[in-house]
Amino acid sequence: MSVLFDSFDEWRTYCEYHKVDIWQPVVGYEIDQRGRSEGEIWDKLAQSYAVMKDAVHTGLSEDMQSISGMINNGAKKVAACEINVLGENFKKLVAYTLAAKEVNSCMGRVVAAPTAGASGIMPGVLTTLQEIHDLPRQKILEGMLVSAGIALIIERRASIAGAVGGCQAETGTAAAMGAGAIVHCLGGNLDQVFEAVAITIMNMLGLICDPVAGLVEVPCVKRNASAGVIAFASAQIALAGDSAVIPVDEVIDAMGEVGASMEDKYKETALGGIANTPTAREIEKNVLVQQVESIEEENEA
Amino acid sequence: MAERSSIFDMIGPIMIGPSSSHTGGVARIGRVARHLFGGLPEKVIITFYNSFSRTYEGHGSDRAIIAGLMDMKTDDERIKTAFEHAKEQGFHYEFKAVFNASSLHPNSIKVQMEKDDLKMSVIGVSRGGGLISIVEIDGFSCNFSAQSPCMIITSEDSHGRAAFITTVIAQEDCNIATMSITRSGKKGTAKVVVELDSPIRPLTLEYMRSVRGIKNIIYLPDLGL
Fold first, then answer.
1. Is the pLDDT of residue A301 over 90?
2. What is the pLDDT, as a whole number, of residue B2?
3. What is the pLDDT of residue A300?
4. Would the CB atoms of A107 and B4 count as touching at under 8 Å?
5. Is the CATH number 3.30.70.260 carried by domain B150-220?
6. How far apart are CA A164 and CA A209, in angstroms?
7. B15 vs chain A: nearest CA distance in angstroms?
8. CA of A170: which chain B residue's CA is closest?
9. Tens of pLDDT, residues B12-28
10. Which residues on B lie below 8 Å from A66 (Cβ)?
11. B7 → closest Cβ in A26, A66, A105
12. At the topology level of CATH, where does B18-138 sit?
């Protein structure tokens, strides 16, 4: 029996005892739980990564205007911007993350990682990472296994759904998945991967889910970009050997507690936060279906 | 304890955006409705209920249901342009929205299909994460996910019908995953929904269809949802 991904502690203990690399128990889990072969697992990872890369490419090359009009080719604007606030690589990360998420908002094909609402983060982080460091694809696929293990634990101890745990559950989890993959791919050890997860979740804690007009557009798309940035910041700190101080399992439990005590109006219901601003309410009037019947009318018809 | 998630639930599924419940689940409901009907209907009225009623346009759920009715899967990039494909196929549809159907799940859709003399009404629920349940067929309540082969049997509501069905399936070496029976009044019509772990042979289906008292059997193979 391999690791069940109930805790990071269990994952660490297993790897130390069996002297295996951090990604190996994730393969073992999928074989045990789903009866997949190792070959099939690598193939599916490669397929997912290909779809992620396609999404980044599509978002940067095709017209990305959403049905509501709220999303309007932001990634291409960033890519073409002449001012680099930090540098070329930083701009690349922001553009790539926006690009994949814009594809999601505009009814294109994406990988939900862990969810559709956070589907820009992993593609943006992984493609930027591979390009900047010229990494082989196999290394990126290993990083994705590490990401999946991280998400499995967060799903069990907290939540990965905005309707249950707010935005921290979706973009927070995706950022933690990204941070873990970055640390692993750049040669960090298991403890550094876990520190990166803890630091990322600390940085994303408390984020509410407040989509304007209930659509996965505002503030979701831009939050994907900032979550990608937090993933890199956390990975930088962890790779330097600095610590989150609070152990990662305790941080995830805190995330669960914050999610559980969050009011429903901040959980994808479009009743609070940015969704409840006067401008958001105006936008709703144009975006939401206005010709709505009540059940009595339907019965008469 | 519930089944543990796959790593491909964490990195996956591959899907058309923006939302697994508003596009993925909706396309699936459309696909199941089409297969229950036995092909593409000529005319369809689609009603979006409750939470779906105001957001179905913004999320593209209207395109997703049409795409599903045209047999497109959840990762088919043609979902975005489903209306154009429907036009090419001469497929007519109409949308309605009802915001206060308190007896239905927040994300429910009714699909009323017509072709020649054939009519069918299906209600599906998008449960989140792209998962669905079919909760009503032609006024009879049911509850199945269509993730495995399924039989929807309409029979006379008489003694021993259910026993007959389970006996035949047992002899087929086929495991029943779930089974539900609903009927319209005493001595009326009964609907038996049987979810199977493995496919059933066409010959067995033909035999069951020929038996007195069985009015109709719809067989839904594993659609690879």
1. no
2. 57
3. 43
4. no
5. yes
6. 10
7. 5
8. B10
9. 999 999 998 899 999 99
10. 18
11. A26
12. 60s Ribosomal Protein L30; Chain: A; (3.30.1330)
| Average of per-residue pLDDT values in chain A | 96
B52 to chain A: closest CA residue: A289
Place of tokens 């040669």: A187
| A77 token code pair | 């604007």
What ipTM was estimated for this complex? Answer: 0.95
Residue A165 in contact with residue A183, Cβ under 8 Å?
no
| Residue-range domain boundaries for chain B | 18-138, 150-220
**Minimum mean pLDDT among A248-252, A294-298, B114-118, B122-126: which range?**
A294-298
Burial readout A118-131 (b: 16 or more C-beta within 10 A, e: otherwise): bbbbbbbbbbbbbe
d(CA A243, CA B223): 49
Ordered alpha helix ranges (H), chain B? 7-10, 25-37, 51-55, 61-69, 82-88, 161-171, 202-210
Contact B6 A4 (CB under 8 A): no
Q: Span A8-300: which CATH code?
A: 1.10.4100
Break chain A into its structural domains and give their ranges. Answer: 8-300
Q: How far is CA A121 from CA A77, A85, A117, A220, B162, in A?
A: 18, 20, 10, 11, 51
